[in-house]
Design a protein that fits this description.
Elements: E1 3-7, H1 14-21, E2 35-37, E3 40-48, E4 64-65, E5 68-77, H2 92-99, E6 104-110, H3 130-150, H4 152-158, H5 166-174, H6 181-190, H7 201-215, E7 218-223, H8 230-238, E8 242-243, H9 246-257, E9 261-262, E10 271-272, H10 278-294, H11 299-310, E11 313-318, E12 337-340, H12 345-352, H13 354-358, E13 360-365, E14 371-372, E15 382-388
Parallel strand pairs: 1-5, 1-6, 6-7, 7-8, 11-15
Antiparallel strand pairs: 2-3, 3-5, 4-5, 9-10, 11-12, 13-14, 13-15
The structure holds guanosine-5'-diphosphate (GDP) and magnesium ion.
The site of magnesium ion has 2 residues, from helix 1.
Family: Belongs to the RelA/SpoT family.
Keywords: Nucleotide-binding
GO molecular function: ATP hydrolysis activity; GTP binding
């Protein structure tokens, strides 16, 4: 499963975001929306379910909510980070240990400017959130550079042996930061470095920056949209951030669960459906003011953008029967996999199970019912039957 790390300074809203997206929701299919432990849980990205193409289902397939399909991802609420954590400040080491497991980082920034660079409360607008954006990437780069520096002597020694391969040796060193051999190979291709024996701080930092960008891609969430000055939000959004209000999302998911509103994560708005007190009504109205201006609370959009945008994933649906799009028990579109862009039918087979991958013979397109080429690059929403030998 893809792991999304929620990172940032204390009081930015990471835990609120985490609680909102990992809430158990009985209505949302039968996913195990669970909190695995206090800071690790299962959330979901949202996409359009292809089930409305199946005759007789009337747009309802049991694995989606009126055509909205939620595909599980793991989320980690990473310990709050303060500048210079790579030197062991604050909860630095716990932070790095949790970060290692993340495929993509959602950097939760307090866009209201109501907390200083260490997360201490100040007057709203007093701290420029733009200043928070870069420090997280810098901390990650310094962490990776530190790992490289600690292992440099060994690397130089090994480089003198005949069987030495730089990318393999680096990948071994960098497994501790969660970088893959492919990440390392791509990073090496992007930088021009002298032989290992001549590396100094500069070479190490250049390499660390590339490795960080590839193995820990980051998306900024401009949180606390509901109280943030417009100028702060706009400046962050201009640099690619997704504006969000984690607190509003949490309130809406709770209200939906208790039947007070009709709201599905990722919806642009919500309907009040239950009897509410004046106080609840006022609370919901203020949430409405926030979400109406931005087409939603932004929380689901942030998760979706991290997975489908930053990580470039696509949703592919394997089926046992290419005609009814069912599994052996008749469930329509029972599974959804988040594959890398460019994945082939064989990659899908391996994502289902390594035994299925090993036994892969060919695949059938669920729409055309034709046999697919092994080189086909799958696309968002593809429905595929894998045939094993
Ligand atoms: N107004 C507003 N407050 C928020 C939002 N998200 C979080 N907060 C508040 O910010 C404070 C810190 O939130 P928390 O999630 O504990 O931050 P963390 O330290 O990053 O985990 C709490 O008082 C939250 O209620 C938001 O979207 N809007
Ligand atoms: Mg927290």
């Amino acid at each position: 499963m893809i792991t999304v790390g929620l990172a940032g300074k204390p009081n930015a809203g990471k835990s609120t975001f985490f609680r909102a997206v990992t809430r158990a929701e009985a209505e949302v299919g039968n996913y195990p929306f669970t909190t695995i432990d206090a800071n690790r849980g299962v959330a979901a990205v949202r996409t359009d379910c292809p089930c409305d193409e199946v005759d007789g289902l009337d747009g309802y397939c049991g694995n989606c909510r009126e055509g909205r399909r939620y595909v599980p991802v793991e989320v980690i609420d990473v310990a709050g980070l303060v500048p210079d954590a790579h030197e062991g400040r604050g909860l630095g080491n716990r932070f790095l240990d949790e970060l290692r497991q993340a495929d993509v980082i959602l950097h939760v920034v307090d866009a209201s400017g109501g907390t200083d660079e260490e997360g201490e409360p100040v007057e709203v607008g007093a701290h420029d959130p733009q200043e928070d954006v870069e420090f997280l990437e810098h901390e990650m780069e310094m962490w990776i550079a530190g790992v490289l520096r600690d292992n440099l002597n060994g690397l130089v020694r090994r480089s003198k042996t005949p069987e030495f391969e730089l990318d393999e040796a680096l990948a071994e060193i960098l497994t501790g930061v969660g970088a893959s051999e492919t990440d390392v190979q791509h990073a090496l291709r992007r930088v021009e470095l002298p032989p290992v024996g001549d590396w100094g701080d500069e070479e190490i930092e250049v390499l660390a920056r590339e490795v960080r960008g590839l193995s820990k891609p980051t998306l900024v969430v401009a949180n606390k949209l509901d109280v943030a000055p417009d100028g702060f939000v706009d400046a962050l959004v201009e640099d690619g951030a997704v504006p969000a209000s984690a607190e509003s999302e949490l309130a809406l998911r709770r209200a939906d669960e208790s039947g007070v509103v009709d709201y599905a994560p990722g919806d642009g708005s919500f309907k009040v459906t239950g009897d509410i007190s004046d106080e609840q009504g006022a609370g919901l109205e203020s949430i409405r003011n926030t979400v109406d201006g931005y087409g939603g609370t932004g929380v689901q959009k942030a998760l979706d953008t991290a997975v489908y945008g930053t990580l470039n994933r696509i949703t592919v649906y394997p089926v046992g029967n290419e005609n009814g799009w069912t599994d052996g028990s008749g469930n329509v579109l029972p599974d959804a996999f988040l594959l890398r862009d460019g994945a082939t039918p064989r990659d899908l087979a391996y994502a289902i199970h390594s035994d299925i991958g090993d036994a892969y013979h060919h695949a059938v397109d669920g729409r055309t019912k034709q046999r697919m080429s092994d080189e086909t690059e799958l696309e968002e929403g593809d429905v595929v039957k894998v045939v094993t030998a």
